[in-house]
Amino acid sequence: MKEHYKKLERMFSKSTVNKTLQAKIKINQGTSELNFSTNASMHNETKSIHNAYLFMAIESAAFLAANSLVEDVLVLAKSFETNYLRSTINKKLNVNAKFIEKSMGNYVILVELTENKNVIVRAKGVFRRSKNSLENIKNYS
Fold first, then answer.
1. Looking at residue 1, what is its pLDDT?
2. Domain residue spans of the chain
3. Residues 120-129 pLDDT 10s
4. How far does the chain reach from its first CA to its final CA, in angstroms?
5. Are 123 and 57 in contact (CB under 8 A)?
6. What is the CATH number of domain 2-134?
7. Can you give the pLDDT at residue 25?
8. How many degrees, rounded to 5, is the angle at CA 30 between CA 71 and CA 107?
């Protein structure tokens, strides 16, 4: 499985999303941790980090945690519930995603985005296996 995690990490590091976030990622069985620093272009008119960047980070972390559990096909989001608890202007953000259960073919992942251990965003993603072989996914191999 460790080789699978490394392939997922390489795939993410080359992704369009990560070109925007410039995040560091660590994947293990059913978990992922993503760390990134914000920049001025990510701020909205109130000087807070725009929710679009926060969502990119939490969805990516959940996606990778779910995909850590399956080695043959890509696992894709079926639904994603997001709760923005507060805004942030912080420069360094951390995202932790964790698999909590498999039910009726769905992989449920909980995610928290924090700044200095304060929760900014909490989310729950539900993921399902796709028919897309991982071996055919760009940058996976």
1. 77
2. 2-134
3. 999 999 999 9
4. 14
5. no
6. 3.10.129.10
7. 96
8. 80
